[in-house]
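User: Hey, quick favor. My workstation is busy. Could you predict this chain's structure for me?
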Amino acid sequence: WDFWTRWWDGVLTGQQLPWELQKDVALIPDAIWKQGPAAVAAEIARIEEIHDLRQQATMLKEQLAEALAVSASATTGHRAHNHPPELVDAPAEIRESLTIIWADLDAAEKELARSAPSGARLQRIGRALRTSVSVVLAYCGKSVDNFTQSAIKAAGGVAGVALFAYLLANIGTFAEALLKLAAKLVGG
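Assistant: No problem, here it is.
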């Protein structure tokens, strides 16, 4: 009854649940409604999980775009402030992985917006996200020499590096949640 309690509280307070969520609940097939409250509750939980993951994908895309914009706007002075032999840019492998992460988040968002998301597609997207995040984190983990540290700092400073690492961790957590949902969809 959790959903219905939250729904009614929203009606009373004027802070209703998102309309898309309410619409999807209202469109639950009659066959499920006839199975009783337990079946309806399970279907609502699945619908809410999909809506939550879609919102996460949107938010992560916005955060990744912001992080990439900040690093792209680093001036020559920022990129050369520790006087490395040349200006430092992210390696092509990392730029490519970040582009793939963006595309995979976009694909996840679109798939989750479908009326019947494909578990197989979500599995592929989740695995691809997990792999891309691992590539970037592995590269960052290797960055112990002074030259690479100066490159990381040039891309946004220590605070920027910490925020970027936090964003990558969140994307990794999202990938795992996507894989769990995909397993439910494939198995159910």
